[in-house]
Sequence to fold (133 residues):
Amino acid sequence: MAEIIWQSWFELGNYRIDAEHRVFLDLIMGLNRDHKAGIAADKLARSLREIHKYAEFHFLSEENLMIDVAYPQRDLHVAEHAKILHALETSVAKLVKGEDILDEFLTFLYDWFSEHTVGTDHQLTRYIAARTG
Ligand SMILES: [Fe+2]
Fold:
């Protein structure tokens, strides 16, 4: 996958969510660079585990915000988070077994990040902004 830098359209105007998304993209691109450089599979698996843990943390942050503002779309948004966590777990397991899945998975992860950020997360930040002024 080509290197992708932070884009202005990723910016949702919520400081916490934007900051966490920057780190999330950074982790994905770090893994992409290591993969292209031919870094050993055990290091890639460690990075993938880090992405998984970071995703868990970030999703919990968003889900806590949703509870605080009584977000009506919470169940739907949480279901999207659960899906990507499951995909991450499956990929770590495959990578540990030595399967060559990273090219495909990195593209999937970036596509998910960009779509989820501009779609689902933007709905949330617009709702928060409307409630908090
Ligand atoms: Fe989200």
